[in-house]
Amino acid sequence: MKWKSLLTVIALSFSIILAEKARFDFYRVYEISVDNDVQLNLMKQISDYPDGYQFLSSSPPFTGIKTQLIVPPHKFGEWSELVENFDLQVKLINNNLQASLDREEACYNRRKADERDFNSFWRYEEIQSWFQEKVAERPNDLSIFSIGTSYEGNEINGLRINVGNQTGKPSIFIEATIHGGEWLGATSTINIINEMLINNYTHLSYFDWYFLPVLNVDGFKYAWSNNRFWRKTRKPNNSLLCVGADPNRNSDIHWNESSVSANPCSNNYPGDYAFSEPEIKNLSEFMKTVPNLKIYLSFHTFGQFFMIPTGFTDDRIENYQLHYEIGEIANAAITEATGAIYQLGPIPEFFGLVSGISFDWVFENIKPVLTYCWELRPTRGEVESELDPVSSKLIEPTAKDMYAAVTTVIDEAEIRGVV
């Protein structure tokens, strides 16, 4: 490693330690077409040893799927050489990332703290305040639940809807924002709750609902305060320079086997050991207490993928056909609602083998009838020149996508008598 690169790593690490707000002045974002194994290996090396680079997508690149890479100014020369030497097909989609972030932040700041704008991103405290308002309005039907505390001592709270507070109902669990910067998952969850309550959704009283908009609370709050693109947890790891693990590689389900990095500074570092991250350990323990779980749904960003378990093997799950048939109907509902198209299939079809992911652990250990994971808007080939996939302009259409998808999955499961 060159001394300049080493100094950069040290400087970035101390920024994390000192909690300085990361800036991205004149950072560029490139869209890359990964067309062969040589290019794929290069992308994986960059993912494992980023040295200032960062992928916007939630998983390492995969052949045939476009990916988006943040390139810092000190890497411009090196990046140009890599593009030429590896014959990469790239497109510049943002030439000053900080300017885009500043414009987006100005939108947040214009909104009053007590203003409930469902087309804006909310801080964690705003989400919790809204939960309290909803519970106060319907105390017999709604309650706040906690799966435990994060490494930094934050309560990981969700909203439970059990109309009539009756026991014995089939349960549905919806979680989002396992990665700190994936705010679109949180807003989609909030919008689904709001729409169901306003419209008195047909099956609202039939199920016992658990909504967890923010699983990785520490990472989410850090993305707000310090680094918009923060993904990992905030617990110290075995490195002296970096903190955190990828919470969606940390579950005790084929842990540390596929799509992970041994480098603690990588966004795909799976943690020092399985369930090393309290957020993920807490989720697993809480899921054991959820009565009669029938459906488990998870929101990530981005790519517009509609995924069926499992990630750790190419083998099809026993009820794959049921998942696929209901998924096709839900996909049709999305397209009818917004025109959007989500690719449906097992995780390895889109990302290769991926191990240690939370919804696989739930599927294998808690055994709900249906388990799905969505990568939300935009598609990997539709990232525009501004801030996609972190722009608030995506909130409304994505919320409509997911309301159509979730309600259709549940309606169809009820029609088929599997819940």
TrEMBL record:
Domain (Peptidase M14) ranges: 120-413
Signal peptide (from-to): 1-19
Domain of life: Eukaryota
Names of the cofactor(s): Zn(2+)
Keyword ATP-binding: no
Entry GO MF terms: metallocarboxypeptidase activity; zinc ion binding
Matching SMART domains: Zn_pept (SM00631)
Keyword tags: Carboxypeptidase, Disulfide bond, Hydrolase, Metal-binding, Metalloprotease, Protease, Signal, Zinc
GO biological process: proteolysis
Family matches, as Gene3D superfamilies: Metallocarboxypeptidase-like, Zn peptidases
Catalytic residues (positions): E375 (proton donor/acceptor)
GO annotations of cellular component type: extracellular space
Keyword Protease among UniProt keywords: yes
Pfam family of the protein (one): Propep_M14
Record family assignment: Belongs to the peptidase M14 family.
Protein's name in the database: Peptidase M14 domain-containing protein
